């Protein structure tokens, strides 16, 4: 939440966001942490040498996604969509950050759900987009149809990163 709010004050390319990774973290938590890191400059810490192969694959996929979106983080305009969040300590609902590239016809969409979040999020976007790349846990479904981004099968504390490209 704080990293998303910082977009109003500091350019995301100037903001280091740390993903603290431990071997006891669930796969779902890894997606949540790594997508949070995509709100700025993704940095890692923790006991990463103790991770298993599945955890490493999630991290490597996250790094690949980050490398594919870093140009949007560098040069873009951010819009934030969220339910009312009254507590940073015990957040409820969700937040969506849409960062539109100023150098290409792409959008970076970062979704974080919190406690008591809806399992489905629909976001109206202007333009005819297609999903170019996705980063989220197995079981989530995302698609773009009729100027709406639909993300389904979300659970509490999910993290989703998408790149949409104008057709």
Major sheet strand order: 3-4-5-10-7
SS element count, helices: 3
Radius of gyration: 15 Å
Q: Can you give the helix content as a percent range?
A: 10-25%
Strand portion, in percent? 35-45%
Give the helices and strands as they follow along the chain.
Answer: HEHEHEEEEEEEE
How would you sum up the global shape? globular
What does the model show?
Strands 3-4-5-10-7 form a five-stranded antiparallel beta sheet. It has a three-stranded antiparallel beta sheet with strand order 6-9-8, with no helix packed on it. The longest helix is centred in the middle third of the chain and has 22 residues, at 53-74. It is built from three helices and ten strands. The protein is of the alpha+beta class. The protein starts with a helix and ends with a strand.
Short descriptors:
167 residues, alpha+beta, three-stranded antiparallel β-sheet, 3 helices, 10 strands
């Amino acid at each position: 939440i704080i990293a998303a709010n910082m977009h109003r004050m500091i350019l995301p390319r100037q903001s280091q966001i740390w993903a603290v990774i431990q071997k006891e973290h669930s796969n779902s938590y890894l997606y949540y942490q790594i997508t949070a890191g995509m709100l700025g400059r993704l940095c890692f810490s923790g006991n990463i040498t103790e991770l298993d192969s599945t955890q490493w694959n999630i991290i490597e996929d996250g790094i690949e996604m980050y490398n594919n979106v870093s140009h949007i983080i560098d040069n873009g305009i951010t819009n934030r969509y969220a339910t009312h969040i009254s507590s940073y300590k015990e957040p409820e609902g969700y937040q969506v950050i849409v960062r539109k590239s100023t150098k290409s016809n792409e959008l970076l969409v970062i979704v974080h759900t919190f406690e008591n979040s809806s399992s489905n999020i629909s976001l109206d976007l202007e333009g005819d987009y297609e999903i170019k790349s996705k980063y989220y846990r197995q079981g989530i479904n995302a698609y773009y149809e009729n100027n709406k981004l639909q993300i389904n099968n979300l659970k509490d504390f999910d993290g989703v990163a998408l790149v949409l490209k104008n057709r």
